Amino acid sequence: MRGAVPRLSLTLLAAESGARLCAIIHYLVRGQLGWFGLTIACLVPGYAAQLLSILWFRADGHTPGCWLLVLHLLQLGLWKRYWDVLRAAAKTGGGAGELLAQLGDVCVLRLLEALLQTLPHLLLQAYVVVAVDPAGFIPGVSAGLSLLSLAWALVSYSHFTFLLKPGHLSPPAAVILCLLLWRTGMLGTRVLALVLFARLYSFWVFAVAGVHWLLMSFWLGAQQTDIVAQPCRWRLFNCLLGAVYIFCYINVRPGPSKTRVAIFYAVSTWNVLYSTWM
């Protein structure tokens, strides 16, 4: 299972990138320069994950050469990391600590890239399909693959955190499938709700999302998460994670999370009711 997870992650990453490229060409050929520019703009935040990948290579004692820098400039740095994980898994059989560290690095980086790059692209393509071009096949396929890739990035991160627990082996395929279905359904409904609200009420969607973001950010601050030590970075982390909580829940604290998940869904339900009332 440890080798299957990075292999599937790389496959979905390639499929998502190919569909995104097709969407870019689609808008360019049809002369829809506005959607073309916005789709290109969604690529820019992904360089944060590429930069962090280079910094982690340096921290691990690997001096990035020109070829490695070119790969990251082309946003192929995570492809290189997945390939390294697959080669290490073939050599060690998936039991070495170094392999687990490499898997953790690429899972965290992929999750960051998915939240910064795939999620905005998903929202944009979903809006095009719902409000602009309902018969658009290529934007629809790109949105679907982005949704699946984002959900899998969350599942693969959960899979890695499961491996970190003492005495825990890789979860069975049925558990992974249930997690994928849960993440896909949760993300899909949230994205669809926001897109439909934006179609009906235009810029009011930012007010609703802003209220949700503020509530989640203050809630995270009240939990006193110690994942970031410095006060300024801690506040920035809570603000960024609060924006993520508009769409999905990510557990950042050890221990049982049933109460936190219940609070998250309660606030999300209130947000939906508030949006309907508006």
TrEMBL record:
Protein name: XK-related protein
Gene Ontology cellular component annotations, sorted alphabetically: plasma membrane
Alphabetic keyword roster: Cell membrane, Membrane, Transmembrane, Transmembrane helix
Encoding gene per record: Xkr5
Subcellular location: Cell membrane; Membrane
Keyword Membrane appears in the UniProt entry: yes
InterPro entries registered for this protein in UniProt: XK-rel, XK-related_scramblase
Residue ranges of the TM segments: 33-57, 126-154, 174-196, 203-222, 234-252
Membrane-topology descriptor: Multi-pass membrane protein
Broad class of the protein's primary localization: membrane
Family: Belongs to the XK family.
Biological source species: Ploceus nigricollis
Pfam families tied to this protein: XK-related
